[in-house]
Structure formats: structure tokens, C-alpha cells
Design a protein that fits this description.
Layout lengths: L2 H4 L2 H6 L4 H11 L3 H9 L1 H6 L5 H7 L6 H14 L2 H20 L1 H9 L23 E2 L15 E6 L6 E9 L2 E9 L5 E9 L4 E9 L13 E7 L6 E9 L5 E7 L3
Antiparallel strand pairs: 1-7, 2-3, 3-4, 4-7, 5-6, 5-8, 8-9
Helix pairs in contact: 4-8, 6-7
Length: 261
């Protein structure tokens, strides 16, 4: 593009270019970030001069002796000024400026040449936080009880009095012990809890849950219940883990116990 195209910004902003030159400059403006930026900086000035064009400036030379001619000239200019078109042009210029800002490296290659790119900060990596799993019931469904992918040593137990059956997986952790539990032949409705009994005769309730009327792993509902919990007690300090049923008065009775730890 010729140097003259870059020098037409002011003339175009003031509307003194003929239609052919104006169209040529608009084609140039669509790809020239520098001219678009310069045109944007002229918005306040053009706003102040929006009522005057090249013909009006020429007409002012004749108004020293004829004030009425000045009034007629200004009225004609105000009727004919092209505010709508100028707003569209400035919007286009602003868009080109924004695009140029987003692609600064490419613009620097065209206009700046020697400027070095500013290094950009990369994503900050944070270390994963390891915490014990939240105790409480988890989902039940097909495939529950498959020991593939379940961490810990497996322990099976069936209570001869209640008929409740359980499989538990116990895994030693830095924070204590992780417990995964599967229950079947568990009738409902009832409220249950999982209790860890330590070798020093102290106990800890690590999870509670409600059993619906159909129970889990029963003729009514064949799906077993799977839940997970954790305790601060090391595995070596645990004597047994027991599933208990709690009545409306808060009295607990054992349903099934894993003691071969």
C-alpha cells in the first residue's frame, strides 16, 4: 500500500475525500492496524468538527462580509453531515485496533521490528491434596463387591443370628485406616452405623445411614449396599469392625462383625 494511503486518515475522518478515494481508504483501513489506531484517536476531534466539512471551510472564507451566508452554510452542513456512516467507520477502526492488540506479536513483526516479545506467565501447578475419604454411604448397584480395583485386604463375615453378610476391605493410610464395606441380606427399614472397636477397648462411630424398606441384597432389592469410611486408628490398633442397628431409642445391636484382623 502506498504512503499516501497512510496519510489519508485525517482527510477521511473529516469527510473531505471524494467517494472513490474514500472507498479505497476503507479497503486499506480494514487491513492496516496503524491507520485504524490513528483514526480511533481522532474520534474526539471529529466529534467537535462533525458539523463542518471541506466545503463549509471554503464557504467560511466568504462570510466576513455576509453573516447570513455563514448561517445558511452551517445549516446546510448540519443537514448533510454523515454521522451514521462515521459511527460505523469508527466501530470498524476500533475492531481493527482490538484485533491488533490481541495479535501483538504479529503487529510487532510488521511495524515494530526490533521489539522483543514479553514472556507470558505459564499455568501454575499446584500439588494435589491428599485427604481421607469422607465417611458415609456411597452408591449401590450392579457390580458392587467386585474386588478388582478395591484397595486393601479383604475380610468376609456372615452373622449366624441376623443373617447379614458383609465384605470389608481395609487399607493402611498415613492418616489411619481406609474402610470399604459391602452389605447384603440387610433388611429394612432401619438405621445403621459402622463402628470401629480398638484394642484398647475404645470405640468410634465412623459412618451412619438409613436402610429403605426393601433393604439391600434381599428378595425385594437384590442390589447390595456399598459404602466407604475412614478412621484415624491405625490398622494394627483395630480389634474389630461392626455394623450395628440403632432403634428409635438409640439402643444399638450388632448385625455383623469382622474380627479376623
Amino acid at each position: 500500500m502506498s504512503r499516501a494511503d497512510h496519510m489519508d486518515v485525517a482527510a477521511y475522518a473529516l469527510g473531505v475525500l471524494d467517494p472513490q478515494d474514500a472507498e479505497r481508504f476503507e479497503e486499506h483501513l480494514a487491513t492496516c492496524w496503524a491507520c485504524a489506531a490513528e483514526l480511533e484517536t481522532m474520534v474526539p476531534v471529529v466529534g467537535l468538527l462533525s458539523g463542518i466539512d471541506g466545503e463549509a471551510m471554503a464557504a467560511l472564507e466568504q462570510t466576513h462580509t455576509d453573516p447570513a451566508l455563514l448561517d445558511r452554510t452551517l445549516m446546510a452542513v448540519r443537514r448533510d453531515r454523515r454521522r451514521t456512516r462515521m459511527r460505523q467507520v469508527f466501530a470498524t477502526a476500533a475492531a481493527v485496533v482490538v484485533f491488533g492488540g490481541l495479535s501483538g506479536a504479529g503487529i510487532a513483526g510488521v511495524f515494530g521490528g526490533d521489539e522483543k516479545p514479553v514472556p507470558q506467565a505459564g499455568p501454575t501447578l499446584t500439588a494435589p491434596v491428599t485427604a481421607p475419604p469422607s465417611p458415609g454411604p456411597t452408591k449401590s448397584g450392579p457390580g458392587v463387591g467386585d474386588d478388582k480395583g478395591i484397595e486393601g485386604d479383604q475380610h468376609d463375615a456372615t452373622d449366624p443370628s441376623t443373617g447379614v453378610k458383609t465384605t470389608m476391605w481395609l487399607a493402611s493410610k498415613e492418616y489411619g485406616t481406609q474402610i470399604a464395606v459391602q452389605l447384603t441380606r440387610l433388611p429394612g427399614p432401619r438405621t445403621c452405623r459402622l463402628v470401629v472397636v480398638r484394642k484398647n477397648a475404645t470405640s468410634e462411630v465412623v459412618s451412619t445411614w438409613s436402610v429403605p424398606g426393601g433393604g439391600y441384597g434381599t428378595n425385594t432389592n437384590q442390589l447390595p449396599l456399598e459404602l466407604s469410611a475412614s478412621t484415624s486408628a491405625p490398622l494394627r490398633d483395630i480389634e474389630k469392625i461392626q455394623v450395628q442397628s440403632v432403634d428409635v431409642n438409640g439402643v444399638a445391636s450388632p448385625l455383623v462383625t469382622v474380627a479376623d484382623l
